[in-house]
Amino acid sequence: IAGLLVVLPLLASVGARATERVNDTRRLSTLWLREHVPPGSRVLSEYLALDLLNKGWRMKFPIGDGGCVDVDANVNAKIDYAKINGWRGTRPIIDLGTMNPAMLPSCVVDYAVLVDYDRYLAEEDRFRYVEEISNYRRLIASGTVVATIRPVPGHVGGYIVRIVQLHGAPR
């Protein structure tokens, strides 16, 4: 009986983590996009996900000095890794926050899927993420947040994902 009392909570914890992995916020954001975003739309995503490709959208990805690059064009062109490294520069993380602010106008899209914004906000008091947060605020100011998908312990895992419908070029 004592062994069961120790094992049962562990099994419940393992089950909850498995449920969270299956119901990740990024996966749920893809489902939201499928239901709400028409084919032909331009979609910026901060995370590279195979489930976003070939859905009839024109995908863009933010990458350092390259700005928001066209995913399909670069995948089909078999882009050289040295070019990607040139865009990336010395950035350890590739997201909208670490993208060169001068390249923000290259992010002309209909929808943006933001995964890292809330992570920067959560650490704003510990680190100076002024430039990074500024990129997000500029993009968000160009549109409307139409969906926010949050993790729910034991049910949904991942980071907070915000989907922004843009109304023109980021300014």
Provide structural commentary.
- It is a single chain.
- The chain is α/β, with parallel strands linked by helices and 171 residues long.
- 38% of the residues lie in helices and 17% in strands.
- The protein is built from six helices and six strands.
- The protein has a six-stranded mixed β-sheet.
- A hairpin with a 5-residue loop joins strand 2 and strand 3.
- The longest helix is centred in the first third of the chain and has 21 residues, at 2-22.
- It is globular.
- The termini are far apart.
- The model has no long low-confidence stretch (mean pLDDT 85).
Tell me the structural class: alpha/beta
Stretches where pLDDT is under 50 for at least 5 consecutive residues are none
Large-scale geometry: globular
Rounded average pLDDT: 85
The strands making up the biggest β-sheet line up spatially as 3-2-1-4-6-5
Strand count, sense and barrel status of the largest sheet are:
6 strands, mixed
The percentage of residues in β strands lies in 15-25%
End-to-end span in angstroms?
64 Å
Q: How much helix, percentage-wise, in residues?
A: 25-40%
Radius of gyration: 18 Å
Q: Report the count of strand segments.
A: 6
Order of helices and strands: HHEEEHHEHHEE
Number of helices: 6
